[in-house]
Write a structure and sequence with these properties.
310 residues, single chain, mainly alpha
C-alpha cells in the first residue's frame, strides 16, 4: 500500500471514529430535547443530506436499483429499523447520564460481532476468541452485579449495532455507503416526521423563549444529519484505503472517547465494580485483537470487523 494512501486512510478512518466518539457532546448540547425528538430529527435531516449527496454524485441509478429490488429493499429496511433503535437507545443513554453504558456497549460490539459470526454465519471460533468472549461475559456480570441491575443499555447497543452490521453484510458490498444510508433514512424519515408531528408544541425545534432554545439550537438539531452522513463517508473512504485489521483497531477510538467524556466531562460515577468490568472488557479486546493480528493472513474464520459510525 502506498504511504500516501495509508496516511489518507488513517486520517479518514480516524476522523470517522473521532466524530462518532464526540457525538455525546452534540447530544448533550441539544438539551432539553428528548431522545425521541432528537432521533426523529436525526433521521429526517440525514435523509436531506443523503439526497443532496446522491444528487451531487449523480447516484440516482444506484438508488433506483435498490428501490426496485424487493430483497435489497427489505434488507435495508430491516437495517434501518435496527440502526433507528440503536440511535434512540444511544441518545437516551447520553440524555439520562449513562454515557459510560454507551461506551461499554460499543466496546462489547466487536466481541458480539464475533459471536454473531459463529452463530449465524457458521464461522469457526479460535481458542483465544473463546477466552475473550468468556472474559467479556464475566465483565458484564461484574458490572451488572455492581450496578444492582441488568446493564440493558450496553447490551442493547451492542446487539442492535451488531445485528445492523450483520444485515448490512448480507446486503453485500455492491451497494455503496451513500446509497445504503439514503435507503435506510428513506425508511426512517417518515416515522421521524410522524414523531415530530405527535410531539408538536412540546418539542424544542423552532421553540423560543427558553434558555438554550433558538436558532443555534435548531441549527444544531439539523447538523445531526451532517454528522451522521459525514462520519459514514469518512469511514467508507478509510475502509477502502486500509487493511481490515487497522480499521478494526481504529474502531476503539469512539468508545474510548465516550468513556473519557463520561468520566472527566460529564462526571459520571465510576465505582470499583464498574472499573473492574471495564478492565475486563479491555483485557478481552486485547486478547481478541492479538488473536486477529496473529491470524490476519487466514481466511474463513471469525475476525473482528470494523463497525461503521452511526
Amino acid at each position: 500500500m502506498p504511504h500516501s494512501a495509508s496516511r489518507a486512510g488513517l486520517a479518514y478512518g480516524g476522523g470517522a471514529y473521532l466524530m462518532w466518539g464526540l457525538f455525546p457532546l452534540l447530544m448533550a448540547a441539544l438539551a432539553p430535547a428528548g431522545a425521541v425528538e432528537i432521533t426523529a430529527h436525526r433521521a429526517v435531516w440525514s435523509l436531506v443530506v443523503c439526497v443532496a449527496l446522491v444528487a451531487a454524485v449523480r447516484g440516482w441509478r444506484a438508488l433506483g436499483v435498490v428501490l426496485r429490488d424487493p430483497r435489497l429493499l427489505a434488507t435495508f429496511a430491516l437495517a434501518a429499523l435496527l440502526v433507528g433503535a440503536n440511535w434512540l437507545i444511544y441518545v437516551y443513554a447520553v440524555g439520562s447520564g449513562h454515557v459510560n453504558s454507551a461506551s461499554l456497549g460499543y466496546y462489547i460490539n466487536p466481541l458480539f460481532t464475533v459471536l454473531l459470526g459463529v452463530l449465524v454465519l457458521g464461522e469457526r471460533l479460535r481458542r483465544l476468541q473463546v477466552v475473550a468472549l468468556g472474559i467479556a461475559a464475566a465483565a458484564v456480570l461484574v458490572i451488572g452485579v455492581g450496578m444492582g441491575e441488568f446493564p440493558w443499555i450496553s447490551l442493547a447497543l451492542a446487539c442492535t449495532f451488531g445485528l445492523y452490521g450483520l444485515v448490512k453484510k448480507r446486503a453485500g458490498a455492491a451497494v455503496d455507503a451513500v446509497t445504503g444510508l439514503t435507503v435506510e433514512t428513506l425508511v426512517l424519515a417518515p416515522r421521524g416526521m410522524i414523531a415530530i408531528v405527535v410531539i408538536g408544541d412540546s418539542g424544542t425545534f423552532g421553540a423560543r423563549g427558553e434558555d438554550g432554545l433558538g436558532l443555534s439550537h435548531d441549527l444544531l438539531m439539523m447538523s445531526t444529519g451532517i454528522f451522521t452522513a459525514g462520519a459514514l463517508l469518512l469511514f467508507a473512504a478509510g475502509a477502502r484505503r486500509l487493511p481490515l485489521f487497522v480499521m478494526g483497531m481504529l474502531q476503539y477510538i469512539a468508545p474510548t472517547l465516550m468513556f473519557a467524556l463520561a468520566v472527566w466531562h460529564f462526571g459520571e460515577p465510576m465505582p470499583a465494580s464498574r472499573w473492574a468490568g471495564f478492565v475486563l472488557v479491555w483485557l478481552a479486546l486485547g486478547v481478541i485483537s492479538w488473536d486477529a493480528w496473529r491470524a490476519r493472513p487466514r481466511r474463513g474464520v471469525a475476525q473482528v470487523e470494523p463497525a461503521e459510525p452511526v
